[in-house]
Amino acid sequence: LLAYDFLFFFSDMDTALGQGLYPLHRCKTVHLVVRHAQGFHNVAGNKDVRAYFSPEYFDAQLTPLGWQQV
């Protein structure tokens, strides 16, 4: 965007209607799934940190303890 386009973009917004920085019709919603539980890669990584780089542990499954944590 050029500086003029940038200023025009922001001056074009109607903040009186409660719109934020970006109007919702110009935005996409992204849903992220974050897992905070023990996986088999964590167990192996505690024994040897190089295990985190092993293809064997890409998208590792949860341990029984991890299932309890979820």
UniProtKB/TrEMBL annotation:
This is Phosphoglycerate mutase-like protein. It comes from Genlisea aurea.
